[in-house]
Design brief:
heterodimer; A: alpha+beta; Ubiquitin-like (UB roll); Fumarate Reductase Iron-sulfur Protein, Chain B, domain 2; 2 domains; five-stranded mixed β-sheet; 10 helices; 5 strands; flat; B: 533 residues; alpha/beta; FAD/NAD(P)-binding domain; eight-stranded mixed β-sheet; five-stranded antiparallel β-sheet; 16 helices
Chain lengths: 227, 533
Amino acid sequence: MAERNDLIPIYIMGKRYDVPSSLTIMKAMEYAGYTLIRGVGCRGGFCGACSTVYRIKDDPKLYFGLACQTVVKPEMYLGQIPFFPAKRATYDIAQLQAQASTLFQIYPEILRCLGCGTCTKACPQELNVKGYMAAAMRGDIAAVANLSFDCILCGLCAARCPAEEPQYNIAILARRLYGRYLSPRSEHLHQRVQEIQQGAFDQALAELKSMEINALKERYKARPIEA
Amino acid sequence: MTYTAELLEQIKIVEATRPQRLTQTFPAMPLEERQELLKKFHPDYIESGMREVRIGSYKGKRMPNELADVIEGRPHVDPHFDLSNPDFETDVLIVGGGGAGASAALLAQENGAKVTLVTKLRFGDANTMMAQGGIQAADRAEDSPATHYLDVIGGGHFTNFPDLVEALVKDAPIVIAWLESLGVMFDKTPDGAMMEEHGGGTSIKRMHSARDYTGAEIMRVLRDEVRNRPNIEVIEFCPAVELVLDDGGAVCGAILMNFETERYFYARAKVVVLATGGSGRLHYQGFPTTNHYGATGDGLVLAYRAGAELAFLDTMQYHPTGAAFPEQILGQLVTEKVRGLGAQPVNVKGEQFVYPLEPRDVEAAAFIRECKERKLGVITPSGQPAVWLDTPMIDLIHGQGTIEKALPAMVRQFKRFHIDMVHQPILVYPTLHYQNGGVKIDADCHTSVPGLLVAGETSGGVHGRNRLMGNSLLDVCVFGRRAGLTAAQLAKERQPGKPTLAHLESWNRALDEIGVNGTVRSPILIPNYTRRQ
């Protein structure tokens, strides 16, 4: 392989590799020779598989990011957290009530939150984790649901929490309670489900299914388009 | 990584034509012109990218070279692998931990089956997780499943299997209500009405969304629900590498591999559901892809070797708007919702050249034509052709703050690389997105092999030769649920016979006969991205 002049040193779990400066952490690891099984998933910032903690030489601060979305920097010391054993409660969503006591019964540790904000600093989605934990302590399910909506369940918040909170698991409970019980009911949806179950569209569908292809094409072309 | 000075200059051209474009949208293309455009510019029609597969029931039919190589691969395990003591037994073995696998697990469990779900990477590492834009369902009073049917079948160029389309559109509102009952947070107005938009090829607004995390929201809820249910065991990092047949030719389990220790074992099951997703990571014709890391066509390989019939594997979907800049996110999805909300594709001269919401294959072909034939594309610093997608139009049409509210994932994605899509247009080019075809199924997810069901992207027929936006999340839920129900019913009836891997012996013989030298072992499980030293 030809010599390249864009290589920078990075340290993968303490070991030095020289990699092109334009790569993401994930691609840099592959460039270095790693075949990834853990710590890799969608490669597009949605799945939370590639949580990464890093530090830059001579800088005491810890940084957090997704390996697939973060470009390497010189003298970067990398560690991955592909799995974190946070507590996850088991429950039957259909048997719950959307009220504060439900949150506290399922996750009593909510009330142990110190409000220190370490979780917020660790969030690669830049969510206000401390804010939604405060909402959880108030029992405000809707606020937890909305503030946590963009969570990818990577687990970095829980990994850093001095109070040992499973923030992301608390958040999904709140979102599911909101989606099932608190979100305003969609009348037109339930009306349509009923019509389908009564067979209201069976005849129209049967007609389309049995249509000769040219007639079907004409029907398609003639269908009105909503503005 | 921010825009270069040259690109910033070119953005001024886009800004200059914006006021006029806000009042005028490029007209939709007549059906006849669509076909002509596709034949000239769509990657499916590039002869050198395709070849005929040489063995099995699909013999003589074309598929992309990269897929044919994998389909004609050698098995991982020896045909004499010891099957006398199954490592575990279950009623329903589900292979794949995406939306279809999770939906199947829930319905199979509800209908009385003992379920084991195995997945190659983590549970939820799937294209479902990455689907941003939405899910279709005809639930507005002015819409109807019949209209949805017409849109689906026209988008698929009238090649779709009618029974599957009927199932898709009829189950759609039921699926939305089911997801909501599990706690999925759909975008709604304060009175509870679903907020619905257009997608490419829809005649009426029926695209439901959960911001632009629609797939992620559905996947994380389904996953959470699976984990809450008794009688479902989930085993991660455990791909299936072969199906096991019984002496009557029916599927009776699978050979699994612990991906970390590379130990093989035999899981005996009364029914197997394959829900392994698509194959974008095979990078057909060298295209980048929006797909997750594990999308390597495993289910196709397994099902085909066991004798299942395939359909429509000569057609892949190239999403018109993959990110073309910056290079770090090349090929990643820019959701169609961006165009649904009004952003227009624009060439280097700041001109519109295509209706923004054609079916995906037509839209993608138009982008390729603009760059390759008309030479009116933008060239990025790495030499990648691209067209502009004029995202700032969205706030101008719908009011300030719309982009950040409706597309937080997209805004975040570009902001990470110092591009502000609220105020600056972004660069896009087609990217490999979806496997339109797959294993042939009927409306209850049966394949041509007894005991083997298939659901989701691994299956073929429902979308014909082209899938519309918002019908994939719908597909995985509709047919995942149907597969789960069918599997539970079948499990009650079926008593598998003596297990055998004899089909691998005949497979190997057939490969020998056509002179395949056996360098590819498939399923390949993960793409090879390691730099060769």
